[in-house]
Amino acid sequence: MATQAVTFESIKSQLAKRQYAPIYLLHGEEGYYIDALVKIFEQILPPEERDFNLYTMYAPEVSPDTVMDACQRYPMMAERQIVILKEAQAIPANQLNRLHLYASHPSPTTILVICCRGAISKAKDLIAQIKKNDGIIFLSEKIKENNAINHINSYIKLKGLNAEPKSLEMLRDYIGTDLSRLYNEIDKLAIILGSNAMITPECIERNIGVSKDYNNFELIDALSQRNAEKAYRIIEYFRLNSKNNPTVLTASTIFGYFSDLLTLYFAKDKSESALMNMLGLKWPVQFSKFRHGMKNYNAYQVIEIISAIREFDTKSKGINSRQNEYNLLKDLIFHILTAPGNIKI
């Protein structure tokens, strides 16, 4: 069995074929994949064998010696036993590292699963012994922002649904890259809408609670067209519904848009297809806000706007300002819409 880091799907495939490694180290910032794999490991043994051969331990509550003792036992009236060590990220690396003693000579009748949920393990000796003895190390990484739309769309298609580009943007902006929550909401839509249905902004508003008219997607659309009336109307809605519209998310979205817009000014190939490829966009409708932005803002204005967003971020944290964050956001929108681009390079 391969000793290098593998993917979530490849581990699932191996387990489905009953191809087991003696030790698995599941670590990384994305907890969804680790939780999903643990559920699969818990189902390896038939129900009648789990009482005596499935051990779930929590690293802060047990010593490495206790874990190793459990791993070295023989399974009771079964072919193998499963030992799952959770919350390994909560103990010092040198303590977790002691398990390298077991990893150097793992039991052939035990599957040890070590979970460092939300963190990358620094137990170097343990990692080295897992690799040396045919173990599996899985690094569970968060999806990157620039690939979030494609990831969301892939999962939606996996569930037998389709989605409008605006719907994908709404899901990304208001649920983000928290896969547990994201997949849960998409699963809910799959049940409500049925197979082959189209996820529209209206059904997201109806079933998830995100307004189809007052959201960060629409705000960026308004700013790209310098539509002041629409932009201020959305900001006022955010103020009245602050719980679901944190300014930090709005500022991050605005910053992301203008940062992307700035990169387009320095592209050698200014064709729309090349610019879309640079931003990782799949549909022309996604590029429309950049088309409008390049028409309504020059590079100097964009640089000034990015500087203003950074100043907003500082002030919204209470540094050199005691203004309400939504008043600061309104000032930022005014600055964006009226930016003269008077900067010194």
Give your account of this protein's structure:
The protein is of the alpha/beta class and 345 residues long. It contains 18 helices and 7 strands. The strands form 2 sheets. The chain has a 5-stranded parallel beta sheet, sandwiched between helices. Strands 6-7 form a two-stranded parallel ribbon. The model has no long low-confidence stretch (mean pLDDT 92). Helix 1 (8-16) packs parallel to helix 2 (31-42), helix 13 runs antiparallel to helix 18 (325-338) and helix 14 (247-265) runs antiparallel to helix 17. The chain has helices at residues 8-16, 31-42, 47-53, 64-71, 93-96, 100-103, 124-132, 148-158, 165-175, 179-193, 201-207, 216-224, 228-240, 247-265, 272-279, 284-296, 299-316, 325-338, and strands at residues 23-28, 54-58, 81-86, 110-117, 136-139, 162-163, 198-199. The longest helix is centred in the C-terminal third of the chain and has 19 residues, at 247-265.
